[in-house]
From TrEMBL:
Domain of life: Bacteria
Organism the protein comes from: Streptomyces echinatus
Annotated protein name in UniProt: Glycolipid-binding domain-containing protein
């Protein structure tokens, strides 16, 4: 069960945003990721709880940030309920999309798991609902993912397969690289893996 810490920062000016303390593991029904976020001063910033089925679809999502809460799942596309900090107002949303995304590295692993690309695969378009900080506002985004390289790296625990994806935002054409090993993000814009206490899990 990998556990560790990511540091999150603004990908443009590198302003520190939060530390994400996480643990994740594959299970009989898919994969689960849980984390808590702390600010630069150690204050609590929120949490992530994401569960996928064995096909990579989100069967449960719960996000907390700034007093806001989102609960969602893959139902008729993706469906969610967003609740305000007072708990008195809840709004429901539904979009014909494939999955969710956001600032957590969990969503990069989840998208890669959903698409299951190979180096010979053509770039694949995916529609996602992004929940943006700090109030978890939903926004539909279209991306293109391509697996451009898959390479084994020698480690003390045997070879570690690292996949490099090229992700393109289809509304702006902006491209960036994402490096993933198993169920751990090694590097991506705004994300640094600072600590990992056990090797990444391997998906079958």
């Amino acid at each position: 069960m990998p556990r560790g810490r990511y540091s999150l920062h603004d990908p443009h000016d590198h302003t520190p945003l939060a530390d994400e303390h996480f643990q994740c593991a594959p299970g009989p029904s898919g994969w689960r990721y849980v984390s808590r976020l702390t600010g630069p001063a150690g204050d609590q910033r929120g949490s992530v709880d994401l569960a996928l089925d064995d096909l990579g679809r989100p069967i449960r999502l719960e996000l907390h940030a700034g007093g806001w809460q989102v609960r969602g799942a893959a139902i008729d596309g993706v469906t969610w309920v967003r609740t305000d900090p007072t708990g008195t107002h809840a709004t429901e949303g539904n979009v014909r999309a494939h999955a969710f995304t956001g600032t957590s590295p969990a969503f990069l692993v989840a998208t890669a798991r959903l698409l299951r690309l190979t180096p010979s695969s053509a770039a694949t378009r995916v529609r996602l609902v992004a929940f943006t900080d700090p109030v978890l506002a939903p926004r539909t985004v279209d991306q293109s993912w391509a697996l451009v390289n898959s390479e084994a790296h020698a480690t003390d625990n045997g070879p570690l397969m690292v996949d490099e994806y090229q992700v393109t935002a289809l509304d702006t054409g902006e491209q960036h690289a994402v490096h993933i090993a198993g169920d751990v993000v090694l590097a991506a814009p705004g994300i640094e893996l600072e600590d990992l206490q056990s090797p990444p899990s391997r998906f079958d």
